[in-house]
Design goal:
heterodimer; A: mainly beta; seven-stranded mixed beta sheet; four-stranded antiparallel beta sheet; 0% helix; B: mainly beta; six-stranded mixed beta sheet; five-stranded antiparallel beta sheet
């Protein structure tokens, strides 16, 4: 009965590799988000989708490509990984974009690039 | 642009009261949220203020003053389990709703 789930929980990979993180929510929410949390715990919005449509696309390298096959899923693909991509990536959802003040977060994916 | 400021660290004693402040600068302001995050965990929603005043939820209360662009989270009867990071987040509308998080305040509760 997990609300927002992410896989994998840990990801260790080498520079230059391509990797994906998957996110699913069973709350029936319309809006989903990807955040990056660095070592200083700063939580930075990367992307947001509303009903499979991209609505927020912050200044993120185009090596990062989100995909939303349906409104319950939002995946993140990262090409040519760099050391600076090491962080915890959180997926989140909210009922809709108007109610973005209350977001439900997944457990996070700790990405380590070596 | 948007900016939020909150103290990086606060230390308090078990059983005490602590206030975590947040000042913000943004256009199209709609409201202020607070989230708690334990080490190794995910942020969890605590409260939301759209109007001026105090909102109370158990031991936690949140306050907003729109005219001062200021809010705070008040934690009463502190417990060791309250040791965590606390984030304020601004909800604004500029062509669409967006929520931006502050850098977080690390709360240490001592016995």
């Amino acid at each position: 009965d997990t609300a927002v789930s992410q896989t994998p929980k840990y990801l260790v990979t080498q520079m230059g590799n391509d990797k994906s993180i998957k996110c699913e929510q069973n709350l029936g929410h319309d809006t989903m988000y990807w955040y990056k949390q660095d070592s200083k715990k700063f939580l930075k919005i990367m992307f947001s989708y509303n009903n499979k449509e991209l609505i927020i696309n912050e200044t993120v390298p185009n090596r990062f490509s989100p995909k939303s096959p349906d409104k319950a899923h939002l995946n993140l693909h990262i090409n040519s990984l760099e050391l600076g991509d090491s962080a915890v990536y959180f997926c989140a959802s909210s009922p809709d974009r108007e109610n973005s003040y209350e977001q439900y977060f997944g457990p996070g994916t700790r990405l380590t690039v070596t | 642009g948007q900016s939020l400021e909150q103290p990086s660290e606060v230390t308090a004693v078990e059983g005490a009261i602590v206030q975590i402040n947040c000042t913000y600068q943004t256009s199209g302001f709609y409201g202020l949220s607070w989230y708690q995050q334990h080490d190794g965990g995910a942020p969890t929603f605590l409260s939301y203020n759209a109007l001026d005043g105090l909102e109370e939820t158990g031991r936690f209360s949140s306050f907003l003053s729109r005219s001062d662009s200021y809010g705070y989270l008040l934690l009463q009867e502190l417990q060791m389990k309250d040791s965590a990071s606390y984030f304020c987040a601004v909800r604004s509308y500029t062509g669409g709703f967006k929520t931006i998080f502050g850098a977080g305040t690390r709360l240490f509760v001592k016995a």
